[in-house]
Amino acid sequence: MADVKDFSVFSSVDGKFLMYKGLPLVREDNVICYGSMDDEYILQMIIMSTKNDGGESVPDKILIQILKTDKTLPDHERIVKQDMKSGFYDAFEIGLIWLERYRTNH
């Protein structure tokens, strides 16, 4: 995964987001979304549980979903692929692969 220096950080106060590889990366509580709502698909990761690692609470079980951005669809029809992974790195890595495949092949 990329080092922090590869991220372009913008203030959320002026309506901009953390960007990674040219797409917004947004977290609200235990939900992390990556991608543009202008695209057909986005990656959503839901932190289902955390664990203690050296005194820090870190994500443990993460539900990964590729979602259609079409808000006219019912929520259950927007989910096109999902899986559960352990650890943020593994979840984000597989999620990026899936998202790229859906963005280029669908």
Can you offer a commentary on this structure?
The protein has one domain (23-105). Helices cover 21% and strands 42% of the residues. It is built from two helices and eight strands; from the N terminus they run βββββββαβα. The protein has helices spanning 75-78, 88-105, and strands spanning 18-20, 23-28, 31-34, 41-47, 50-53, 56-59, 61-68, 79-86. The strands form two sheets. A six-stranded antiparallel β-sheet has the order 1-2-3-4-7-8. The chain has a two-stranded antiparallel sheet with strand order 5-6. It is globular, with a radius of gyration of 14 Å.
Write down the overall mean pLDDT.
86
* Main beta sheet strand tally, sense and closure: 6 strands, antiparallel
**Main sheet strand line-up:** 1-2-3-4-7-8
Summing up helix and strand content along with how strands pair, one would put the structural category as: alpha+beta
- Into how many domains do the coordinates divide? 1
Query: Could you tell me the number of beta strands?
Result: 8
Distance between the termini: 25 Å
Order of helices and strands: EEEEEEEHEH
Cα-based radius of gyration, to the nearest Å: 14 Å
Taking pLDDT < 50 over at least 5 consecutive residues as the criterion, the unreliable ranges are 1-13
Alpha plus pi helix count: 2
Tell me, what's the shape? Answer: globular
Q: Bin the strand percentage.
A: 35-45%
Helix content: 10-25%
